[in-house]
Write a structure and sequence with these properties.
Rossmann fold, alpha/beta, 2 domains, 4-stranded parallel beta sheet, 13 helices, 7-stranded mixed beta sheet
Length: 336
């Protein structure tokens, strides 16, 4: 049965308490993540004599990337039945840190067995996750990596399951560079500046642009938001009339940049993004956005859930990070 855990979020997106059956036959391409979790002896379940409960806590479900992540987890859940329960939830917007902290606190109060979290901030969630760890809850970090220094200070170890964002950003930026000329002016739309994935994507963009001899004339945070990216890009176009390209650290900001270029009638401005949401796929097919990066959001939560299940049952938990695939998406790849 579906039930809403946070009334401030749309019921059709924030779901749900669903039951999962064993994971036999469920593939996972993340290196080191088991593909058949049912092979692991369920020691904790035998001990507790009840279903395992795993909470998936994401960022904004208004962002298509995270709603796709939720859908992937739920589809995975619907293929299975009676081995554990999955609680899926997210926050109203990507910068609402207090709401995400509150969600983790709710999961602690509900005494879930594991929390799989895409933190809205790499530092701000460490404290509440430390409390979850102290309560005996298994933790898995997906999407945005927790800050290593903050975790070291908290004496907390949380395995990260996700792509190398710097490599992914470098891939799309190198593809962009092949369409430009050395010396061309480019700008970067950054995500939340305290988010590790945003930091890594910016670095990947810089790696490729500087190696290709481009001039990065502006770099500003649009906080992952389309509307902010629209305004920020408009300002960049005014300040830098010779600007040739905008590299956006997520697809929502790429769409904001596209809106600004349309308003300014800058049809020759080239835009790339990161996340592979459907609206950007359409824009790529239409020649309005050059490329994006697919980090397989529909499977990212599944990778984390599978690892959480392993950590719950394993006699000797493997707390090493697990790298997952990241691929370039262009008009050509979308034809395949």
């Amino acid at each position: 049965m579906k039930r809403c855990l946070n009334p401030s979020i749309s019921p059709c997106l924030q779901w749900l308490l669903v039951t999962l059956l064993g994971f036999t036959g469920v593939g996972c391409t993340g290196e080191g993540v088991p593909s058949q979790i049912s092979d692991i002896e369920p020691r904790k379940k035998i001990l507790k004599q009840e279903k395992i409960r795993i909470a998936l806590v994401m960022k904004s479900l208004a962002n298509e990337f995270f709603s796709t992540m939720a859908e992937g987890a739920i589809q995975h859940a619907e293929k299975h039945a009676d081995q554990y329960q999955l609680i899926v939830n997210g926050i109203p917007d990507e910068t609402d840190l207090s709401a995400q902290v509150s969600l983790v606190e709710q999961m602690i109060a509900q005494d879930v067995d594991a929390i799989v979290i895409a933190p809205a901030d790499s530092q701000a969630l460490v404290s509440v996750l430390k409390r979850a760890h102290e309560a005996g809850i298994v933790l898995v970090n997906i999407d945005n990596k927790l800050d290593a220094t903050a975790m070291q200070e908290a004496k907390l170890v949380v395995p990260f399951v996700g792509p190398d964002n710097r490599i992914g950003a470098k891939k799309v930026a190198e593809f962009l560079a092949s369409k430009l000329t050395a010396g061309d002016q480019v700008a970067i739309l950054e995500g939340v500046q305290t988010s590790f994935n945003g930091q890594q994507r910016k670095l990947g963009f810089e790696d490729a642009m500087l190696a290709a001899g481009m001039k990065i004339v502006d770099s500003q945070s649009a906080r992952w938001e389309m509307s902010i990216a629209d305004q920020t890009t408009a300002g960049m176009l005014t300040a830098h009339p010779e600007l040739k390209a905008v590299l956006a650290c997520n697809d929502s900001m790429a769409l904001g940049a596209l809106s600004a270029t349309k308003a300014a009638e800058k049809k020759d401005l080239v835009i790339v993004g990161f996340d592979n949401i459907s609206a950007v796929q359409q824009a790529i097919r239409g020649g309005q956005i050059l490329a994006t990066v697919d980090q397989h959001g529909d499977q990212l939560a599944v990778f984390g859930i599978e690892l959480a299940f392993q950590l719950i049952y394993a006699a000797t938990p493997d707390l090493q990070d697990k790298e997952t695939p990241v691929d370039l998406v262009t008009a050509e790849t979308l034809k395949r």
